[in-house]
Amino acid sequence: MPVDFLDLDDFVLEGGATLRPARLAYRTYGTLDERGANAILYPTAYADRHPNNEWLIGPGAPLDTDRYFVVVPNLFGNGLSSSPSNTPAPYDGPHFPRVTVRDNVAAQRRLVEHLGITRLALVTGWSMGAAQTYQWAVSHPDLVERALPFCGSPRTSPHNKVFIEGLRAALTADAAFAAGRYDRSPATGLRAFARVYAGWGFSQAFYWHEQWRDLGFSSLEDFIANWWEATFLGHDANDLLAMLDTWQAADVGGTPGHGGSLESALGAIEAPVLSLPAEKDLYFPPEDERWASGYIRRGEVRVIPGIWGHLAGRGANPKDNDVIGDAIRELLARPA
């Protein structure tokens, strides 16, 4: 899994803590043109790393590396970029400070400068990557030509926060978690965490129609154990909690100059924004994105149809992939 790192000396977070240094892990695909203007930024989502984004990237793919220079920065907390699991004292383990979506975007802004990028033809992302996409459009309207968030939102909703609290409670209830000072992985807590997640990531219809059989699983228990549990057992527990903190606090309304107003922040976006919510997403339902889009001057919403719910955006269902890929190609073809 090749990866590059940008060291950010004395990186001051929104909350006041300073990481010395912060490390931003990233991967690039394709070639930057002489003007530095053919770049696409595609941040990672919760618990994902750059390889999880590669289903959209490549020659002839929606993020076409024959034409574009694609940059995938890894989210703080994912175990590659600065995280509880790889940061020395005093911010190791449970002492890792809260990192916001704006902190991630601030680090990515420095990466963009480091790489010589002058314009971003597109910022796009799934789930927490969508939250970063919205934040980029609010914070850097001078750089972002187009934005395409899919299966995400500009602010974490109260209902979504309830889900996050359920995950947090399931993980930290394991005695082996030891208030984050564990000397072995809290596997029981991680398994409970995964089973809570399993009830939300896909829709009710996905389970009703036993769609998991198309993924090669023989039973519901097989799917939960060998998809969901297998996904999260490989993660550090404090890393997962750090990313939950980032997710829970996401709100572009907190951007300086907007006084906490989500409507004001959305109204400041200059780029065309094509939002792709999934029809049965339990985290980010289409009605929420339609509401948000009403405040974006060049906002548009197009619903991904089907029963895959939130996971419509992770690349496993060809029909959903086609909808997302076609939307990306269409938006990139529009004049900036």
Describe the structure.
The protein has 336 residues and is of the alpha/beta class. It has 2 domains: 236 residues, 3-Layer(aba) Sandwich (Rossmann fold), CATH 3.40.50; 85 residues, Rna Polymerase Sigma Factor, Chain: A. The protein is 35% helix and 14% strand. It has 10 helices and 12 strands. β9, α2 and β10 form a beta-alpha-beta unit. The longest helix has 16 residues. The protein is globular, with a radius of gyration of 19 Å. The mean pLDDT is 97.
Q: Brief overview, please?
A:
The protein is of the alpha/beta class. 35% of the residues lie in helices and 14% in strands.
CATH topology of the largest domain: Rossmann fold
Number of helical runs?
10
**Beginning-to-end CA distance, first to last residue:** 34 Å
CATH class of the largest domain: Alpha Beta
The pLDDT mean sits at 97
Q: Just name the CATH architecture of the largest domain.
A: 3-Layer(aba) Sandwich
Overall outline: globular
- Determine Rg (CA atoms, Å): 19 Å
What is the string of SSEs from the N terminus onward? EEEEEEEEHEHEHHHHHHEHEH
Briefly note the structural class of the backbone: alpha/beta
Itemize the secondary structure elements and their pairings.
Blueprint: E1 4-8, E2 11-12, E3 18-19, E4 22-29, E5 39-41, E6 57-58, E7 63-64, E8 69-73, H1 101-115, E9 120-126, H2 128-139, E10 147-150, H3 158-172, H4 187-201, H5 204-208, H6 220-233, H7 237-248, H8 262-267, E11 273-275, H9 286-293, E12 299-301, H10 318-333
Parallel strand pairs: 5-8, 5-9, 6-7, 9-10, 11-12
Antiparallel strand pairs: 1-4, 2-3, 4-8
